[in-house]
């Protein structure tokens, strides 16, 4: 039988798609569930459970037509009520879904018939369908919500078999999957292997077939391997050095500019990621058509930094602690590089690693200086608005940046469909970011997987989702 | 002497100490024929145990054999490899170590330790070995062998351990047995019984003994031939009778003169001693090693010496043995004070109704399942009444001698007096202070005044403290002398117990048995106490040191008014020192009274046995003990009821009375009490069994004897 | 007094003159010297190390050992040899401080509960049971979250973690020794519990304490490494052997020297500390003689 | 003695109660809570409040404790707040796996450690003594994860002799079951052996000088028997303490081993739960560990009494 094993470092916290927040959970949910929409390789929105959709002219009413040939893993047909139930949950603060903020623009929703769903929005939103491709926006069965965390039932290519926390999550082929010819594998096992050294050894020993999201320092090992290789793709995910704009000394734009001037992005990318990353200015990835190639990617200018610091009243630099999530060696290297660079301008940096869970709940956005990472989003709006708009949810969690021009551009972009205008907007966004420095987005990451030679048809996705539906094994 | 079972030729052993090499045995030759019993005597520290160690190949680390050969059954032991040599032990050469307290493994039941060599050497099965073990224990005079076999060493008294060790040495009936002070912890009745057993084994089975002892009485009884050792050198060798009757070496004479005798009057005479101490073994004098202490020394004694013939089968190492033949050891004895007329003051120690019980057996001993629904577990471990109701008064300046069978509770009583053990019942008063329930902190002033010399000197010395540290502590603790004088005082204390001052730097493991004992005595004296419990303080000492120590104790009593509870199994020593004597049997006093009262008629039947069993150096025949005791083993007592504890062994017992009612106190004279159902006039008066006094009224009160 | 004490003056004062000192066991000397050397290296690290511990030579990352970089360079191009030398500071500090804390608290506690028996013993032991069952990670986490972490806090915390172990060991030894007659003898002299514990029992309890203590130094250093491994470690870029090993574990194949250098340093330290302990234990035992039979 | 053991068993219950309070208080004292951690960066005040209310995190400490404790007392280990699945099956599963690992390691540590210690003591100062010292110190010279990774590289990756990681249940066959255990057990053993063996050596040295060992030799018992029967019984006391302690240390080490070997045990479960402040899971895991640990110590204490008859627990007669 074609049984594929893929390794992850952390165990899923939950099997409930609405509550997910880690790669391993996304991977599972994308195999077991479907969204209304999805993305293709170029990140274009494509149909999934919804066959088609249409918007009212004011971009406030959206109608989705659902497929009628889909059944749940327990045999019940998929209907509009499932979508309504799913979205109701999504909006319930008790559920605590990450995507609730995105969907809060929904005014109300209804199901005129079994295969149609209509959403009325509070404000016009041009990329609304893309939201349904989001990781958490998986459609769940209205009648099995209670057992989602213990025995999830979905519509996806694979059926959930068992989950042993800390050990493995097993899924088997769904023979009734609505896409012809998929899936090809009989069984998928997600193994939890916390240590990459172990995972790569297991890959070489043939005990696992894919090592998901292999960090740069491990990629080297597979370069010389005869049985496995590294498959990678640039993503929209980024690492940044974040300054809290409302905390001293970063309230002063000059200080932020000084910090920016100290950062040699290509060098940092090399040190932190061993080159498996692309320097950039803003959350807009270099792979995006909107990326502004004209803005130079900074190499360090210590003199300029010193001058700026002196102007800001820190001729001798200052002392600051930078917090990093402990589990990420790349971010730690980023911090170490920054410490080294900052020292040249007289800034003394202490590095303080904090266990991730605690870091994200207690430190991020609350301390003056830290590093963090972000998964890429699929639309320009979701990529920029939350971070750079003064009311953006992330902005308020990170750099607390406020620039009226930026706010206006982002607001306008939401209701613009004209490509030309949009391109202009986004170019300006990048200029402001470099000029005003809310924080430093240092580089965009590559997403890499260690793949055994017997795996066929696997392609790393910029969404970091291991799409196994079309994958098969050589024997 | 090629037919010798064991022959030691020119043995020299040295110990490596911080101060330099100590020659503990110097050029010693010795031979033991098959079926012979050879004694090895000599002052404490003269190297006796070292000889034993050398034969057994079990010398302490730091010891080295620097010369000589040891042959067993004709082959040089050094030519054997380790394992072969080891295999001889236990099977062909048995041994009993000097220190019974530490020679038993604390974690293994006594019976198993005895059975083990049988299983290893004789290849018998476990059950058979067990049966044989019980037999051996029975021979050793244990009343209930099975209980002893199941006990752990710490649950046994000193004498019991010693007997268990002898049983283990005899386990496989080896050809040669090396007995190092095998009777130090035994009371005379058991000692006699064991000596009988040894004698029987020798004549019947042809066992040979190397019998190391300072107890000349026992040596005289056991041995046919005696070697006298002094400072590692052989002083004299002779057949037993010749040695005791015609000692050729001055040192031998000194030893014999130091012996305490059982004859009255007691306690007024000082023992004669050999003044001085062992020479410095780091640098022994080139000439006669005894010269410094020899009253007969004359010019020329500092010439190097060889051993020479002094008579029939008698050899001696004395330049002047011919000239001094017949001269007696000069007795420098002077009379001690006599307090008897003055009387004593109020009670210093006052004990009323004292009791102490212990539980016996292993982890699960006494745990039984009680049938029923649900079955219940009851925990009723066997209990020993070590002290079973004692009243005792000790007055200032008074010495109370405590004698009694091994395991009769002497040590326990001693510990109870000092609150080292909490009594189960009863009261102990010291100087008007009820100490039995006081918290330890409140006992501090009492502790300074009341001291103890433990029965086992070895384990009572901290192995990681030098002698000097051990002795300095009480001085510092009680501020007896200012700090800068302490070193000198330590030296004084050492000299008081006849140890060289240089010993202050030694660790306990570098001392011989008797030396440790003396350190322990010195430690007790250091606090300048008023009352000392002396638990067998001289059992490990040779007679000359013993005499010195006894004299010292007597002097302290006379000059400073010290009181002692003096526990010993040596009646002569007890008689020498004590004002009053208590005879203990199974936790109670069988008889109490002044020394003269107890040692002269009328006797408690048990006292009589004790007196009759005491070994004699004069070689006179022992009375037939079988007439004095019933067959029952020592320690056998009345069935658990209230009867007389001596019932089972008493030849004069009154069936139906003695076994059921507690014996009444008969007082033949003021201050003399005998706990016995026999009427006063029926009590034995001579060393012959009295006719059982039939129909003696239980509880009859005897009239006070003549004053 | 007695006749035995006559002519005191004539008797020579104890012949100290000839007393020679007990020879130091070779393990004590060897272990001690190496350990002292390591401590010296730690103290004078800035003088000895060819580079600052955090100086990066990014062009020379993963440089194999050579004359320029004696033990090669790490993933930042920092000189591994220099970091190893600086690492001695943190690792030794951690190891020694933690061990001291645990001994200072654990030994008296264990002695007390082993000697007092009864209620004190039960109380102390049960509290220690609870302490010991409290997972170390939890404690460290508490400390890290409730306060800003720092090396000495972690060391003290680790020391606390070791307390129950030490106390239990001490107690078992003490239970055994308290039954000895020399302890009874001290009680008979009216010695207070503190003297008995410190001067009678403790000297006989040294061997296990020494063995345990020297192992604890090791364990503390190791625990630091494990904490780094689990993400609760020392703050980078500080060099600590454990941290160095933890961070370099991914490069075992590519650049083994990054792991081997601190590993070797730890190895030498561990052996030296324990050898020293063995020697000390031997030296303190009067029964161990230089001459063996 | 039985009464003492029973008393101690009752005390284990007290320990558990005390421990649960302690852990509860500790987690309570930590800044943040499960809801905050689960929502992480995405926490908005309204969702945080809603979630806290749902989880009952706003209640008073004692109410929260009582809610948990009363359920726990009836055998209901509760639900993981994060995973939203019952704790019991997860816990027992992880526990069973860790137990196998721990028991096997402890067994080897005890046997090999004691043997090495005894040999080193008997051959004090000889080359073999040194060799044993070096060997045992090597094990603790570098952290266990290092050994784990090296062993994986050598035996699983280069020689391909053993599985790299994970766990096989007995139903997969005894071969794979054992094969999966080899490397983790070896690693754990390597890191723990020094402690036991050094301690055994030290106490054996002490015992070997004792008079009763000399006496046993004088009875002609073969050296083996002297060692095994006479010396070891007394020399083992500290080793038992150390083993009981190492049991605790093992639980710490096991986290690392489980991480390196991707072994789904209780150590990683605990870390997982602690990091997320998942109170029911943390408590359940810690309490089980505490119970096991307390029982191990009880066993050690009873073992002392067995090996050393001078130690008696409880009151003496009379
Ligand atoms: N380990 C040792 N180190 C140094 N000296 C020792 C050692 N053992 C014994 N000695 C010394 O050797 C001498 C002889 O000791 P040994 O034990 O043979 O005497 P002993 O005749 O048996 O004495 P006792 O009758 O007191 O038992 C003594 O002076 C003693 O101090
Ligand atoms: N700790 C203990 N546990 C159990 N039984 C004990 C304990 N100590 C003493 N006994 C028992 O108490 C009784 C009296 O012992 P004790 O040591 O007082 O005897 P003793 O008269 O001093 O004997 P010996 O002359 O042989 O030294 C013995 O039967 C002994 O077995
Ligand atoms: Mg002797
Ligand atoms: Mg006694």
TrEMBL record, chain B:
Indicate yes or no for the key word Metal-binding.
no
Q: Give an example GO biological process.
A: peptide transport
Q: Name one Pfam family in it.
A: ABC_tran
Q: Which UniProt keywords apply?
A: ATP-binding, Nucleotide-binding, Transport
Domain ABC transporter: where? 6-256, 367-611
One Gene Ontology term of the molecular function aspect: ATP binding
Q: Where in the cell is it found?
A: Cell inner membrane
Matching InterPro entries: AAA+_ATPase (IPR003593), ABC_transp_ATP-bind (IPR050319), ABC_transporter-like_ATP-bd (IPR003439), ABC_transporter-like_CS (IPR017871), Oligopep_ABC_C (IPR013563), P-loop_NTPase (IPR027417)
Top-rank lineage group of the source organism? Bacteria
Where does the secretion signal sit in this chain? none
A single GO cellular-component term on record: plasma membrane
UniProt name for this protein: ABC transporter ATP-binding protein
Annotated organism of origin: Acuticoccus mangrovi
Please spell out the taxonomic lineage of the organism that makes this protein. Bacteria, Pseudomonadati, Pseudomonadota, Alphaproteobacteria, Hyphomicrobiales
UniProtKB/TrEMBL annotation, chain C:
**Boundaries of each ABC transmembrane type-1 domain copy?**
88-277
The UniProt entry's GO CC annotations, sorted and at most eight, read: plasma membrane
Q: Which Gene3D superfamilies match?
A: MetI-like (1.10.3720.10)
The protein's topology relative to the membrane is: Multi-pass membrane protein
> What coarse category fits the chief subcellular location reported for this protein?
membrane
Tagged with keyword Ribosomal protein: no
**Keywords linked to the UniProt accession:** Cell membrane, Membrane, Peptide transport, Protein transport, Transmembrane, Transmembrane helix, Transport
Indicate the transmembrane segments per the record. Answer: 26-49, 90-112, 124-144, 150-167, 217-235, 255-277
Q: Which InterPro entries match?
A: BP-dependent_transpt_permease, MetI-like, MetI-like_sf, OppC_N
Q: One GO biological process from the UniProt record?
A: transmembrane transport
One of this protein's Pfam families, by short name?
BPD_transp_1
* Cellular compartments annotated: Cell membrane
Q: Which family does it belong to?
A: Belongs to the binding-protein-dependent transport system permease family.
Q: What is this protein called?
A: ABC transporter permease
Annotated source species: Acuticoccus mangrovi
Automatic annotation (TrEMBL), chain D:
Q: Which CDD domains match?
A: TM_PBP2
Tell me what topology the record assigns in the membrane: Multi-pass membrane protein
In this chain the ABC transmembrane type-1 domain maps to: 95-304
Coiled coil start-end = none
Q: Which InterPro entries does UniProt cross-reference here?
A: BPD_transp_1_N, MetI-like, MetI-like_sf
Q: What are the transmembrane regions?
A: 9-30, 100-122, 134-157, 177-196, 235-261, 281-307
**Which superkingdom heads the taxonomic lineage of this protein's source?**
Bacteria
Q: Where in the cell is it found?
A: Cell membrane
Give a yes or no for keyword Glycosyltransferase in this entry: no
Q: Which GO terms describe its cellular component?
A: plasma membrane
Q: Which UniProt keywords apply?
A: Cell membrane, Membrane, Transmembrane, Transmembrane helix, Transport
UniProt-listed Pfam families: BPD_transp_1, BPD_transp_1_N
SUPFAM superfamilies recorded for this chain? MetI-like
| Main location per the UniProt record | membrane
Listed under GO biological process in this entry are:
transmembrane transport
User: What is stated as this protein's family in its record?
Assistant: Belongs to the binding-protein-dependent transport system permease family.
Q: Extract the PANTHER family matched here.
A: DIPEPTIDE TRANSPORT SYSTEM PERMEASE PROTEIN DPPB-RELATED, PEPTIDE ABC TRANSPORTER PERMEASE PROTEIN
Name recorded for this polypeptide: ABC transporter permease
Q: What is the lineage of its organism?
A: Bacteria, Pseudomonadati, Pseudomonadota, Alphaproteobacteria, Hyphomicrobiales
